[in-house]
Design brief:
about 160 residues, alpha/beta, 5-stranded mixed sheet, 5 strands
Length: about 160
């Protein structure tokens, strides 16, 4: 049980960092607030935020930005042993990038009922058709992440924010 409690505490710690990144990119760049952190053996390897609007790059999702940075830092396209924390359930593009990179585990906050590929709409990370499967944990700080995302889109539509 101590191991489970320690893992849960680590998951919350790193997800809080991803939420900081999401708020930063929302406030500084007016991007959809999604943040990602990659950790291996308790050490932060890389971070990423959604940058697709600013960079005019449809692939610059937080997860992909973080994986690119992690690959450069590690000097390897394989991210074996890494856990990727992200504030929104990965889409199909990001999920398959994780499979190709051999990410060990993904932890996400808010589920994405429209395009989620970690179990909500698709389950690409656990598909037995792939030669690598990524362990998935969802719902870590989901309410906080979901509220941040909802309020971002509510503001775009001129609606008042949801209360916390």
């Amino acid at each position: 049980m101590a191991g489970d409690a320690g893992r849960a505490a680590d998951d919350e710690r790193w997800m809080r960092r991803a939420l900081v990144l999401a708020a930063r990119v929302r406030d500084r760049e007016d991007e959809v607030p999604v943040g990602a952190v990659i950790v291996r053996d308790g050490v932060k390897i890389a971070e990423g935020m959604n940058l697709n609007i600013r960079r005019h790059d449809p692939t610059a999702h937080a997860e992909v930005v973080a994986m690119r940075r992690a690959g450069r830092r590690l000097g390897n396209h394989r991210l074996t042993g890494c856990t990727l924390y992200v504030t929104l359930e990965p889409c199909a593009m990001c999920a398959m990038a994780m499979v190709h990179a051999r990410v060990a585990r993904v932890v996400y906050a808010a589920a994405d009922p429209k395009t989620g590929a970690a179990g909500s709409v698709f389950d690409l990370l656990a598909s037995p058709r792939h030669n690598h499967r990524v362990d998935v944990a969802g719902g870590v700080l989901a309410a906080e992440a979901g509220r941040m995302l909802s309020n971002y889109f509510r503001a775009k539509r001129g609606k008042p924010p949801l209360e916390s």
